[in-house]
């Protein structure tokens, strides 16, 4: 596009038609209820996108509950931030770290079960408007928690709040009942160029 | 997997080997510098993932600057949250809304230029550790800003901070110089099932 005023006028007229079309489309979208959201795929950003939605919710005065299933006891930026602001939301790290770090299947199962019981309590608590179950997909993939039980509960969930579940390798049973699914696909990753995980980006 | 103790022991031994392999791989990744990050694709979560990285950075005491190129004057959760916490970061909405809403190409160009000048100042300011240029891809795609000028500047950027650029239809010239690229792919979207955009999720 040049600086030609005729082209500008044509652009402006075209955008007026686009706007009218968009308004007609939006008028047809009237449903509103709590969504079941899944972030999956091998790319970066599944958890950080959920944390960004937490920020959006907090900006509207909605109460947020986060349960982390896998992240262990190590320090992360999100833990530092959210735990320093307990008046904003609850942030509970229930996982013991990756299963190759715990090397204890019985402990993995016990931790995942405790995290799921806490998750159910948060989902059923009317005080909460947005619930993040971070890395739940990982423990479902490993059969550390039984997929049938989790799906049965989520089917009957209260529709007054949003729930976001993250982690690669989401189970098809979960995708089937979800309202919003995004796949995060890795296009280029600095780890492969020799970079280490860095503060603010990876943790 | 069953509750059989032999299977548990085999799992635990296998995980010990996985852990050792991971440690060997990680020892080879030693590079550390500011990354150029691009979030693109037609799926949801590009901006919210950037806001989640902002939270991670804030949790480490890093200073964050956000410049929004397209979002207009309407209220959003992230704007409410971040602007209510100005001690945490700077959040500047420089865009006038979508081009079909402004219907004024000359104004679009002037706004994008002002946003880019502000972005450069933030990138060059040593006080900032993480810069988000939200929806810059949109104005590059429209040629509202010249891609060559932006790429030339980013090539010579200070390597002491991370920069995250969001928006669908990222230009190939930008992907080429980026360190980390994630494509957000839409798998299932509630809009298509008749839902309207909802607080905390979409805005």
From TrEMBL, chains A, B:
GO molecular function, a single term: ATP binding
Superkingdom, taxonomy of origin: Bacteria
Catalysed reactions listed for this entry: 2 cob(II)yrinate a,c diamide + reduced [electron-transfer flavoprotein] + 2 ATP = 2 adenosylcob(III)yrinate a,c-diamide + 2 triphosphate + oxidized [electron-transfer flavoprotein] + 3 H(+); 2 cob(II)alamin + reduced [electron-transfer flavoprotein] + 2 ATP = 2 adenosylcob(III)alamin + 2 triphosphate + oxidized [electron-transfer flavoprotein] + 3 H(+)
InterPro entries: CblAdoTrfase_CobA, P-loop_NTPase
UniProt-listed CDD domains: CobA_ACA
UniProt keyword terms in alphabetical order: ATP-binding, Cobalamin biosynthesis, Cytoplasm, Nucleotide-binding, Porphyrin biosynthesis, Transferase
A GO biological-process term: porphyrin-containing compound biosynthetic process
EC numbers: 2.5.1.17
Pathway: Cofactor biosynthesis; adenosylcobalamin biosynthesis; adenosylcobalamin from cob(II)yrinate a,c-diamide: step 2/7
GO cellular component term of the entry, any: cytoplasm
Subcellular localization, as worded in the UniProt entry: Cytoplasm
Catalytic class of the enzyme: transferase
Protein family per UniProt: Belongs to the Cob(I)alamin adenosyltransferase family.
Protein function: Required for both de novo synthesis of the corrin ring for the assimilation of exogenous corrinoids. Participates in the adenosylation of a variety of incomplete and complete corrinoids.
Protein name (Swiss-Prot/TrEMBL): Corrinoid adenosyltransferase
Taxon lineage: Bacteria, Pseudomonadati, Pseudomonadota, Alphaproteobacteria, Sphingomonadales
